Amino acid sequence: MSQMTTEQDSGATFDDDVVLLSVPADGGYLGVLRTATATLAARLQFALDEIEDLRIAVDEACAMLLVVATPGAELDCRFSVTDDALLVEVEVPTVRGARLPAESSFAWKVLTALTSSASAEVEGGKARIRLITRRTGIA
Questions:
Q1: What is the gyration radius of the CA atoms in the chain, in angstroms?
Q2: Which top-level group of life is the source organism from (predicted)?
Q3: DSSP symbols for 56-88
Q4: Is 85 within the bounds of a domain?
Q5: pTM metric for this prediction
Q6: Residue 79 lies in a domain
C-alpha cells in the first residue's frame, strides 16, 4: 500500500450530501467532473476564485489517475457536501505496479496549493485521490 497525505482531516464527517459520478477514464470526460465540481461548490457559496481553484485541482487529480488507469476503466468520483466544505474522492482501477507522482512533484504541489487538504493512496488494484476544500469567509 502506498499513501500520501498533506494535511490531517479535522474529523468532520462527509456523509451529509453525497453525489456519485462514474465516467470513462478518458480525458474527454473530465469536463463532466469539472462541471459537477463547480456546481456543488457554488451550492456551498464558495467564492468564484475558490470554485475555479477546486475545478483545477479536480482536473489535476483526474489527470494523475488517468496515467495509471487500466484500459477501459471507469473513473469514479464521490462528492460529499457539508455546510462549509466539499470533499472530492476520485478513484480508478490501476495497472499493475502503478504509482502516483511523489509529493515533491509539480502536480502534487498544485493539488496542495488549491485545496485545504489532499491525500492519495494506491491499494488493492485501485488508486484514490481525496481533496477537501473548506469555504473561506464563513459567517
A1: 14
A2: Bacteria
A3: HHHHHHHHHHHHHBPTT-EEEEEEEE-SSEEEE
A4: yes
A5: 0.84
A6: yes
